[in-house]
Description:
Elements: E1 12-16, H1 21-32, E2 36-41, H2 44-53, E3 60-65, H3 71-84, E4 88-93, H4 108-135, E5 141-145, H5 160-182, E6 188-194, H6 210-216, H7 224-236, E7 245-248
Amino acid sequence: xxxxxxxxxxxxxxxxxxxxxxxxxxxxxxxxxxxxxxxxxxxxxxxxxxxxxxxxxxxxxxxxxxxxxxxxxxxxxxxxxxxxxxxxxxxxxxxxxxxxxxxxxxxxxxxxxxxxxxxxxxxxxxxxxxxxxxxxxxxxxxxxxxxxxxxxxxxxxxxxxxxxxxxxxxxxxxxxxxxxxxxxxxxxxxxxxxxxxxxxxxxxxxxxxxxxxxxxxxxxxxxxxxxxxxxxxxxxxxxxxxxxxxxxxxxxxxx
Length: 255
């Protein structure tokens, strides 16, 4: 199998949560490969700054200010993309939050934020991308950035709603695959589940307790580029190949 992203050159890819971490790394990677990337983020100024830095690359990055918890923002973002960049061919549902909290005495506002970002936002963005791809007979690809926590409950207290949200992503990816198969769609879907990754939600999270910081620096960890390259691998497969689930972990991970 020859792995290449040539068939995506000049095509539009939407990346949610593109202002930092995995989303920013994926946006960089796709622009370098010649794609037109719509980077959705609340902190759009960060994406705008990155777009200037990438101005000499083969592709191009566009910043679109979007609060993934607000349906209207997502709808407006996809409308702008259609009118200004073209039809969406790829959606990377990367936006996600992880807030340590406990079921026994937790804050419902935190639970809602996790569910709205990690689940509802993903569902709405997916719906809009599928509409565009289906209406234009596009053999697109939708990739949900999931987690190993979406497949097993880690013995890591405080990750309750995050884990539940990622289990939902696992179920939603498979649900979408069945739905698309039922209408004979050629849109591909993949759940990409990394292990621990260096990002603002993990080792770089300023809200981490000192105990958590000490624990996480001792653990094997993936680089952001490792996840971006995994996305590249998924997109490089032929139109006849669907990878339903791809799990990547750092060597030595014990979760």
